[in-house]
Amino acid sequence: MDKSVHFCLTNCTVQNILPGRVVEGEVHAPMHLDGSQDGRPETDQPMLRLGLVGRGIQLSRTPAMHEAEAAAHGLRCRYVLLDSDAGAGDDLAAILDRAEADGFAGLNVTFPYKQAVMDHLDGVSEAAGRIGAVNTVVFRAGGRFGPNTDFR
After folding, report:
1. What are phi and psi of 63, to 5 degrees?
2. Cis bond leading into 41, ω under 30°?
3. What is the pLDDT of residue 81?
4. What would the pLDDT profile of 54-104 be if each residue is shown by its tens digit?
5. What are the tens digits of pLDDT across the range 106-144?
6. Which residues pair with 81 in a beta bridge?
7. What is the 8-class DSSP label of residue 116?
8. Calculated CA dihedral for residues 70, 10, 13, 122, nearest 10 degrees
9. What is the mean pLDDT of the chain?
10. Of 36, 48, 62, 138, whose CB neighbour count within 10 A is largest?
11. What pTM, to 2 d.p., does this model score?
């Protein structure tokens, strides 16, 4: 597989996300007697953890899309919804701190946090700075970087 193939978080390559941002041995699907998970062979590939931060996002199709795309590239991915309407809380700083501490590689950001998240980042892309909003947070090398993949 080409390590620079983009998936899950636009502008983040597999090569840039995986080191230090995976949860070894995490299993989120039922295991079967033959050692497979939901009919797929067991793999020693580490789990890539990603999520979406927003309000009122419980009907989002994003987790299924990203997990399927990762699987198509032979990667294990767990994509979760961090919905402030469903128990994630309204404290954006706490949500980011928890995701980073839990080993997330990054987060997609949606309403109402695209502008507020900028105050919690170490840097933003030129595009994000120009429009004053971020839709992605990448946790890398102890820092937080925010591009905006909706605008170029």
Report:
1. -55, -45
2. no
3. 97
4. 999 999 999 999 999 999 999 999 999 999 999 998 899 999 999 999 999
5. 999 999 999 999 999 999 999 999 999 999 999 999 999
6. 52
7. G
8. -130
9. 79
10. 48
11. 0.73
Identity of the residue numbered 44: D
User: What's the start-to-end Cα distance of the chain, in Å?
Assistant: 27
Amino acid residing at 24: E
- What is the structure's pLDDT at 34? 35
CA-only gyration radius of the chain, Å:
16
Helix spans in the chain (H): 14-17, 62-72, 92-101, 126-131
**Catalytic one of 21, 49, 66, 114:** 114
Q: Are 146 and 123 in contact, with CB atoms under 8 Å apart?
A: yes
Within a 10 A sphere around the Cβ of 131, how many other Cβ atoms? 15
C-alpha separations of 141 from 37, 102, 112, 137 in Å: 31, 15, 27, 13
Whether 3 sits among the annotated catalytic residues: the reply is no
Tell me how far apart the alpha carbons of residues 36 and 30 are, in angstroms, rounded to a whole number.
Answer: 9
The answer to whether 42 and 29 are in contact (CB under 8 A) is: no
- The total number of residues shown for the chain amounts to 152
